Amino acid sequence: MTQQAVLPGTTANGQQTTLGVMGGGQLGRMFVQAAQRMGYFTAVLDPDPASPAGLVSHYHVQADYLDEQALAQMMQRCAAITTEFENVPAGAMFTLGAHRPVAPSAQCLAIAQDRIREKAHFRACGVPTAPYAVITTAEQLAAVDEALLPGILKTAQLGYDGKGQVRVADRAGLAAAWEQLRGVPCVLERRLDLHGECSVIVARGWDGAMVTFPVQRNLHVAGILAMTEVFDGILPAQLAEQARTSACAIARELEYVGVLCVEFFVVADASAPGGSALLVNEIAPRPHNSGHYTLDACDHSQFDLQVHALAGLPLPMPRQHSPAVMLNLLGDLWFARPGEPQPADEQPRTPDWESVLALPGAHLHLYGKLRASRGRKMGHLTLTGATQQQVRETAQQAARMLGIALA
Ligand code: ATP
Ligand code: MG
């Protein structure tokens, strides 16, 4: 498929070329900022009047994602439309896609929204996954292979940041967990002993051209991404290459257009060279939290490439110019730390940005969320520097100053 390039500037009817995004969270905000820097106008559809992207966009359509009038407004304003939110109803993207270039497509979103379809796609691409079983009926529940226990029961749809997941030890626990999840379609995955986790961001154009960012190593704490580290040698070269090749295969087979993140588990495998192997976990059909470091450590960010891909512009191969560590800033930092006196009436306080910003190579990104709450992603901090040792040390210092738990 090809797509005529959508260029920034004034169009024949005197309007400004506008790119649209479904969803107004922080990913939408950073997309909007990248698009605006290149001279595009932007439009955001999000029901929240205080959405982080809505607050900085030229246009903010405040309505439900399936609101027909709102979709009509987006189509009328926008030359091309993307999403920042994987659970945007695929139906909305079908409607938009009938009249405007939409990337990623509704079909790709529908696959990414459903762990059952997603895993089937990985297998079809020949990319190995954790052992799993689909559970949609009581019969399937009863027939589960012992080898999948202990496991993690995950809802097929609408999970994020570890939500919609229950760890189960045995059959009785599995039955209770499925009941707790109200018997919705699920997958049961064997609980793996992880050596680590990594992800790859790939951008694919309408013409099928693909570029990838370097492989990122990710640390999750309590099911939420806490830290991403990216520098040479972060993974054995062979695994890093395999991660990139697998990510490209997954994008190609989906005929994906836009920015896609592919997340992997690193597990012990005595039969593999180097003693470890990769299993694909899941995909995110959009820029990803683990790629935020690209804003400060690469010559093109993941959001720049989302703009390029959507607008049908050439895709430059991004180059990382500095080793980087990214720390997520969760709402917990706005409240008393464990071990500190907990005030009865918890009022959010401002974290000590002044000390953190005195650190060399510290880049603060706050998403403009008006209210902090525990577990909410409020921003991130990227540390860049001349050497990996330096950025790692500074990241540890920043984590200590802010009270970020990295274990
Ligand atoms: P997010 O939206 O943040 O990516 P999610 O809710 O989609 O998260 P997963 O990526 O499936 O959930 O799982 C979140 C984290 O839980 C993983 O990154 C990993 O640390 C851990 N985890 C998930 N599945 C397994 C497994 N089978 N074995 C061991 N750990 C797992
Ligand atoms: Mg995940």
Layout of strands and helices, then pairs:
Elements: E1 18-22, H1 26-37, E2 41-45, E3 59-61, H2 68-77, E4 80-83, H3 90-97, H4 106-112, H5 115-124, E5 132-135, H6 138-142, E6 151-155, E7 165-168, H7 171-180, E8 186-190, E9 194-204, E10 210-212, E11 216-221, E12 224-230, H8 237-254, E13 258-268, E14 276-284, H9 294-297, H10 302-311, E15 324-330, H11 353-357, E16 362-366, E17 377-384, H12 388-402
Parallel strand pairs: 1-2, 1-4, 2-3
Antiparallel strand pairs: 5-8, 6-7, 6-8, 9-10, 9-11, 9-13, 11-12, 12-15, 13-14, 15-17, 16-17
Helix pairs in contact: 1-10, 3-4
The chain binds adenosine-5'-triphosphate and magnesium ion.
CA-based gyration radius? 21 Å
Structural class: alpha+beta
**N-to-C SSE string, H for helix and E for strand:** EHEEHEHHHEHEEHEEEEEHEEHHEHEEH
What is the average of the pLDDT values? 95
**Which architecture of the largest domain per CATH?**
2-Layer Sandwich
In which range does the helix fraction lie? 25-40%
Q: Compute the separation of the termini in Å.
A: 45 Å
Bound molecules: adenosine-5'-triphosphate, magnesium ion
Q: Tally of extended strands?
A: 17
- CATH topology (level 3) name of the largest domain: D-amino Acid Aminotransferase, Chain A, domain 1
Name of the level-1 CATH class of the largest domain: Alpha Beta
| DSSP helical segment count | 12
Note the beta-strand portion. Answer: 25-35%
In quaternary terms, these chains amount to single chain
